[in-house]
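Subgroup meeting minutes
Present: P.N., E.W., G.H.
Scribe: E.W.

1. P.N. recapped why we're keeping a running log of single-chain structure predictions: easier to compare across weeks, and new members can see raw inputs and outputs side by side.
2. G.H. added today's entry (422 aa).
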Amino acid sequence: MAYKTFTGESMQEAVEAARLEFGRQFQIVNQEKKVHRAGLFGLFGKKEFYQLVVSYDENQKPARRIPRADDLEKQEVLERIARIVSERRNSQPAAGAPVLSPQPGAELQIPPMRSGVIEEIAELRKMLDPIVHGAGLPKERRHHGHFDQVRSFLEDNDFTDDYIERALEHLGAKLTCKQSRDEELVRNELGTWLRGSVKTGAPKFDEENEPRMITLVGPTGVGKTTTLAKIGAELALQWKKKVAFITMDNYRIGAEEQISRYADIMGLSVRMVHQREELQLIIDEGKFDYYLMDTAGRNQKKEMQIGEIRRFLSAVRIPHDIHLVVSATTKYRDLAEIMHNFAPLKYSHILVTKIDETNTFGSLLSALSESERKLVWLCMGQEVPSDIKIAEARDFTDRIMMRYPSGTERPERDPVGDLVLN
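Output recorded in log:
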């Protein structure tokens, strides 16, 4: 019986080193935490490590090490580099061979590099870059450490396959193999990725010096009218702007009465328009700072209905923000279709309603991450003028990460601030 000592920055790392050499044909004799002190009396600091002592049979055959995927690819890279270096050396003149100097004024002729070498070197550089920077090999490492846990978590929260692959690719490129085994580090990096995948913006009401129109468009049943009233209250009560509601919703029964009730409560003006010429006449009066227009809900599958709104809005000759309103409860495929089919209206921002009616935001974040438009407003209830806030990426990501299966502490604040309902 013989003994051998292994060390590592963790006990698990030391055990893995022993398994690489002996497989499972060893016995743990002793394991303890050690402290190495540098300099006299440890004046230059100290470093902690773990020491593992194992016993093994000297007569047994050594365990056959099974190389990992990233080890194999690194070895392949090194072999290809060695082959290219060897080929380049063989193409150079032999030692002692006469070297002809160019005649005065003649152009120095450099022998062309072997066909394909430049492309191969470029490919090798791309492969070596993550190795040199300690990031490992992303595609082959998507099942390392806690990455499988990340995949399961995102799948459970209805994220799309494409979003999940992009998230894992980011984690694989950002974290080393060792870091991928740190649950807290993986969790934090995932939260950072989620926040960065959503583009948000904020309206600058205090900087507006000319009349402006805000129009809400979107499918039926997402709460456009109530949301418009919330924005109107924000502008009139907080920013002291002169606001007029305009509605072209001539289809839904009671639409005009609903917006009129909100306007009466807040002391604001409301106008009903049936033709685009009427819209321009109201704007030309120049009595208001903001014109907030409510449109009839439209089926995103019917191009003629969306085209009708587009022709109506073509009469607007002042700065104009068109906001697409979607519900947080909508499935990804429907969200993607809505965002695509309403694109002819050239909406500039996205507004999300009903975030209090779901705890699963994967479909919404997956769709928002694919959009070039910024998310500006969030609505989480029916109360006017409250239940609305300027959007922040943390409003979704903190709520999502609160459900991440780990023993770490939860976010310090409620994900959507003071306005969130239970």
